[in-house]
């Protein structure tokens, strides 16, 4: 990685001989620098950047796994780039075919009966799913206001349920899994849904899922599948078999469609037959061999995004699924193998794995024992930077003290995993002061996170005032 | 880890300083350390009434968001408004300058459920 002592935009020295556009730039409120300086600045920053293309990225599919470059080529195809969303449906039959086929593929991967590709991100999918649950109970005249969520859940779950108008009941976990007694106690005639990620955020498969589904069915409530960890079960099992009623997928996590930098994502929602009529409009339907948009769906929750979702993201997922075909399950096999291999290596190196046992695609360490030496998870994360590794997710899930969540994904080699494990072992035996003051080799040392949050400088204007 | 002898404690790591008919509430040294640097405090309205165990304040730290729970039932009398500008006081001075709210005590009996310092010390040593 390159290392520059790069000034901020407002610190770059202006050139005297470049007065021509000065007035215009000031009017436009952009940095008053010439192209040469601006290009150099941003290229320097990009050279100092670390990404999934340059090294190991143990955040895994939880954030973004390695994405094949072929998908980038597919979406750059002119036949697709010049399609306009307002075009007559007869002239975009190819695109509609892709939407139609992708829905079918996702149905067979998840065991659902119908899909909508409109939601533009995971949390958007959750909200859509919750609105469907709400519409369902309204349609059968039942007033159910509560959604149950385990304390290991992604933070978006309670937020989505609340936004859809539900009250949230949190239940504690037991040994890293759903506590069946706590769940049974929480269920009542007011329960609308139980939102669950399986495997959960600790990477543990909820083995009692069939019993959980049974309980929800008995209570007349909906079982909701958060698909964030779909990378762990592709082709092996699916939410339909487990008894889930609604599923959202994060195409940008599992199906190799990058959404780095806050770019567009896709969070399709799938449902069982009895909920199909509530899916967002329009649905892409087929009649006499022609595709068309069907808006005539009186029970639909309505439109939830402009046009038909993030089409280029959907296209990447479509290409990825076709590329992998029946080999999709190999992704899961390799991801789970990598995760368990790395977990064992780190455990042997002296790291603690709470609720130790076999894991799926990810695992969570607890670094709480290091606190006796005054070291926190963040210190180890920062020290990893010095050795050229991107740190994993830290401080999540909340039920593990000083959590260190690692998801290697399927594409990393044994050599990379070994190097990472060796580095983690080395760090464990390093001097406290070295860890607490890391990183030492980065262009920027330990950043002041409090100041960054409280005094966020996000735009050129903020920087100027600053 | 400082635990003060003149305070009462909850399992959810609040401390309570009993005064005449009301009490001052904050979070413990142990709690502030696990939360790490606090960057934002979301207060309730003055005069709002909370039942014991209800969420009264939300604390946002650089790593997560967590709640402060009412140690007993009563109305909010005062907020430590200094925390709006300097939320870090909770970290640097959890028992003094970093107090969070003052609440009226509706029912003195509820205070009997709170823990004395010795008992709280046992709880957090298990936590570690």
Structure description:
- The complex is a heterodimer of chains A (466) and B (128).
- Chain A has helices spanning 22-28, 35-47, 69-75, 78-81, 93-110, 122-139, 156-163, 180-186, 209-218, 239-242, 251-254, 311-324, 328-348, 377-386, 414-428, 432-436, 449-454, 460-465, and strands at 114-116, 146-150, 167-171, 173-174, 177-178, 191-197, 222-227, 246-249, 269-271, 283-287, 290-294, 363-366, 393-394, 403-406.
- Chain A is of the alpha/beta class.
- Chain A has a domain at 70-326: Aspartate Aminotransferase, domain 2, CATH 3.40.640.10.
- In chain A, strand 6 (191-197), helix 9 and strand 7 (222-227) form a beta-alpha-beta unit.
- The model of chain A has no long low-confidence stretch (mean pLDDT 93).
- By secondary structure, chain B is an alpha+beta fold.
- Chain B has a single domain, classed as OB fold (Dihydrolipoamide Acetyltransferase, E2P).
- A six-stranded antiparallel beta sheet of chain B has the order 1-2-3-9-8-5.
- In chain B, a hairpin with a 3-residue loop joins strand 2 and strand 3 (22-27).
- The longest helix of chain B is centred in the last third of the chain and has 11 residues, at 117-127.
- The interface between A and B is medium-sized, with 14 and 12 residues.
